Amino acid sequence: MKILCAGGGSGGHVTPVAAVINELIALEPNLDVTFVCDKAFEVQARGVMTQNVRVPVTVHRIMAGKLRRYRHLSIAKQLTMARIVFPNIRDAFKVGIGFLQSVFLLARVRPDVVFAKGGYVCLPVGMAAKVLRIPLVIHDSDARPGLTNAILGRWASAIATGSPLENYHYRPEVSRYVGVPIGAEFRPYDERRQRETKVALGFDEHRPLIAITGGGLGAVSINTATLQDAPLLLAEGVQIFHITGRKNFDEVAMLADKDTSNHVVPFVFEGMADVLGAADVVVSRASATFIQELAGLAKPTVLIPAKTLTDQHKNAEAYQHADAAVVLTDDEITVPGSLYHAIHTLLNDASRRQVLASNLHAFARPHAARDVAKMIIETTRAHHN
């Protein structure tokens, strides 16, 4: 069986693909995999596929573009703003080029099925699949579909969703609620394993550990707040594993506290479950995939949704309403000490951490990757029979 997968823009559109591929291998041992991504996430995508997938994956890069839309501005206003109009025109040409690249790639690879995980790189790939009449399976992690999935959903052969179907307007006859695919390693760590993993990562097993990340490409606001408040945490004996993102690493590493308890890295290609599993509290963006990984691990979490991403705000609100996470905004963490206070409060309240962890774990759907893999196989067989 040949499959071409696409995803990009963030780790949340790549790591679930790795999880699904590994489940497909168990069901279809003779699997031939090609992965397509955009330039911005190519380095991370190659790392994820190399370190987390049990078969060789051929990675290709195509050109892709996105439509910039700002819900707080009227359409008329946006049409008068050069910083919106001109990049959109430029990216429209990128989508056209990416479509031609995808047509030639699919014609050469001749996959039995295309799996699009999300991100604007999937649009030209999904359009090419339609033109070449190759079955298309998509997965939508967010409760509020992005533009790419909204378009591809019109002709997709099968649609897997990360939230219950009532949150979407997809065709019900081809849609199925499965949850968000995550790796099998994202399972709760008991106290002994947590302590052993801290030691393996170079930390003191008897001191609290905080994992902080803004996603694969990084988040300036989270990095800035961490630089600002890390000295307060380190002074109290708290250990920090700070994942800056590729774009911001050099600057953050230069400014970061040189305390040996403060580990600063650009990205984690392999062993992310161990980093999160070892942590006593995790601070992160509110991407659907990453939250599901934290849910699988049952981790007390502080979510900081990206200011301009509506889907992340909706995710954060849902988990906050369920008392499954503490939520801060980008504006709030600009205030010195605000991030420190949220972390300090959780570290000093074990019962509160347990409530958050338990409530978040209730959202975990550990079989999502296997369910998506089965949908892909079913769709492929139905098309070729």
Mean pLDDT, to the nearest integer, reads 91
CATH class (first level) name of the largest domain? Alpha Beta
Indicate the percent of residues in helices: 40-55%
Shape: globular
Number of strands: 13
The secondary structure category is: alpha/beta
Largest sheet: 7 strands, parallel
Give the termini separation.
14 Å
CATH topology-level fold name of the largest domain: Rossmann fold
Estimated share of beta-strand residues: 5-15%
Q: H/E series, N to C?
A: EHEHEHHEHEHEEHEHEHEHEHEHEHHH
Give the uncertain stretches in residue-range form: none
CATH superfamily of the largest domain: Glycogen Phosphorylase B
Radius of gyration over all CA atoms, rounded: 21 Å
What is the number of independent domains?
Answer: 2
User: How many helical stretches?
Assistant: 15
Explain what you see.
The protein has 385 residues and is an alpha/beta fold. It has 2 domains: 2-183 and 366-384, Glycogen Phosphorylase B (Rossmann fold); 191-361, Rossmann fold, CATH 3.40.50. It is built from 15 helices and 13 strands. The two termini are 14 Å apart. It has a 7-stranded parallel sheet, sandwiched between helices. Strands 10-9-8-11-12-13 form a 6-stranded parallel sheet, with helices on both faces.
List the main descriptive attributes of the protein structure presented here:
alpha/beta, Rossmann fold, seven-stranded parallel beta sheet, six-stranded parallel beta sheet, 13 strands
Structure at a glance:
This protein is α/β, with parallel strands linked by helices.
Topology (elements, then pairings):
Elements: E1 2-6, H1 15-27, E2 32-37, H2 42-52, E3 57-61, H3 75-78, H4 82-109, E4 113-116, H5 122-131, E5 136-140, H6 147-152, E6 158-161, E7 175-177, H7 191-200, E8 209-213, H8 220-235, E9 239-243, H9 249-255, E10 262-265, H10 272-278, E11 281-284, H11 288-297, E12 301-303, H12 310-321, E13 326-327, H13 338-347, H14 350-361, H15 368-384
Parallel strand pairs: 1-2, 1-4, 2-3, 4-5, 5-6, 6-7, 8-9, 8-11, 9-10, 11-12, 12-13
Helix pairs in contact: 1-2, 1-15, 4-5, 7-10, 8-13
